[in-house]
C-alpha cells in the first residue's frame, strides 16, 4: 500500500488519486459484490466445500462453498443428490469424495464422487479413494462432546515434546461440526451446541492466535463434513460474485 501511495501517479494525477482513495475505502468495508474494479477481491486459489449434514429433523443435501477472499458463502447445491450426514469428505486428484453417511434410514457403505468442473455426482469404487488429512503439519483437537457438555477447547499436539498444548478456545462451543484449513486458517462450520444445530462459522488464525467469527452458512446443520478444493479451473462457479453490473 505504501508503494502505491508513493507512486508518481498518485503525486501528479488527480484522477488516479480519486481512484485509489475510493479503492482503499472499499477495501476497508469490503463487499464481494462491489463494482469497484480495483477493490474487488481476486478469485480464490482454493475454496472450502461444506457438504450435507443434519438440518432440522432430517439430513440435508445442501452444498455450500466458502470464498475466503470475499468472506462469503455460495450455495452450490446439486438438485437430486441424496441427503446424508455423518459422512467423510476429501478432495483428491480433482474430485471430491463423500464416504459413507446416514440418510435417516440407511447407513451407507458407498462412496460418491463429485466433479467440480462438470458439476456432477457419480458413484465411485471404494478402493479408488485414498483419504489424507493434514492440519498445517500439526495434529489439532477442536471442540467436541465430553458426555455432559459441548466443548470449545482447542489443543495442539507438540511432536517434539510428545505433549498437548492448549490454545485459545473457540468462541462457540460445539460438536458434530465441519472442519478444514483454508488460507492457513482453521475453519469450523456449523455443528450442535447442545440446544440445536447451528450455522455459525468461525476461524482460528495460528499467527495471531485468535478466533474470529466468519460469515454464517445459509443452512443450520450438524454432522456435516468439509474439504478444500485447490486450483479449480472453473473456480468462479464456486466463488462469490465480483460484479453485479
TrEMBL record:
TM region positions: none
SMART domains for the chain: Kelch
Keyword vocabulary terms for this entry: Kelch repeat, Repeat
InterPro entries attached to this UniProt entry: Kelch-typ_b-propeller, Kelch_1
Organism annotation: Eptatretus burgeri
Entry-linked Pfam families: Kelch_1
N-terminal signal peptide: none
SUPFAM superfamilies linked to this entry: Kelch motif
UniProt name for this protein: Kelch-like protein 10
